[in-house]
Amino acid sequence: MADRRDGPEFAGVFDIHVTVAMDATITATDTTAAADDGVGRLARWATGNAVKLTHIVLARGAVRSQPMLTLAGRGTLTRQRAVAATCVDRLRDEGFDVVRVKIEAAPWNEDVPRSAAAAVALTGCYFEHHVKVVVRDDVTPPAGIAQLAEIAQRHSAHVSRNARRECDDGSAERFVTQRCRDIGLSEAGRRFDALVTELRSCGFAVLETEREFVVYDSNPQIDKGWIEER
């Protein structure tokens, strides 16, 4: 992963995401000691190495439980690949099963495609947008999780949550993730705006938004059955 490479470097700021597999017998809704111990051990590793841990749970899909470590970076893609490789080696040395490395560039980084033609030339790269919303099933009009999923699917998106964050007031936080391939930055922005506009018009409180361009994804198949991209 850290070898020298040809191609765009996307110089600027990055996020590196490293997904770690849990025991195959542990499901996304498990509350057993085995599940707690698996994520707990990873949480202790993250704390000891000053790395952020998010336990992503997809609303559907082949691999719903996806504990993910995040490292922030700056510089070039080559540099981020080297940092990611070091992190992966350390995790594997301590017995963790790394199943995915994903590197995301900020949309204002160098080399992010401005046109569809430029995007098509970057095989395996895609725009990804995240919208964090508040969901309540006891409000009128209903702005519940089922409606959220319906809206998401209309915009080539779907829903996930952070299993490590729960609310005490009857509400829930959910992430809506949208993917856009083979289009330029402006069109990706238009699709993102359309998603956010519909969410707000249907009564969802938008807490945070984030736009990124994925420049490396070692295992996109881990999300099979989650997002229906169009």
Structure report:
By secondary structure, this protein is α+β, with helices and mostly antiparallel strands. The protein is built from five helices and eight strands, in the order βαββαβαβαββαβ. A hairpin with a 6-residue loop joins strand 2 and strand 3. The longest helix is centred in the middle third of the chain and has 17 residues, at 77-93. It is globular and about 45 Å long. The two termini are 30 Å apart. Residues 24-35 have low confidence and may be disordered.
Topology:
Blueprint: E1 12-21, H1 33-48, E2 52-58, E3 65-75, H2 77-93, E4 97-105, H3 116-120, E5 126-135, H4 145-154, E6 157-162, E7 172-180, H5 185-201, E8 205-217
Q: Which features characterize this protein?
A:
Alpha-Beta Plaits; 2 domains; eight-stranded antiparallel beta barrel; 5 helices; 8 strands; 28% helix
Oligomer status: single chain
Annotated CATH topology of the largest domain: Alpha-Beta Plaits
What is the number of E strands?
Answer: 8
CATH architecture of the largest domain: 2-Layer Sandwich
In terms of DSSP E residues, the strand content is: 25-35%
Level of helix content?
25-40%
Shape type: globular
**How far is the N terminus from the C terminus?**
30 Å
* CATH class membership of the largest domain: Alpha Beta
| Sheet with most strands: strand arrangement | 1-3-2-6-7-5-8-4
SS class: alpha+beta
**What is the helix/strand order?**
EHEEHEHEHEEHE
- Average pLDDT confidence is 89
Largest sheet: 8 strands, antiparallel, barrel
| Number of individual domains | 2
Specify the number of helices: 5
- What would you report as the Rg, rounded to the nearest angstrom? 18 Å
List low-pLDDT spans: 24-35
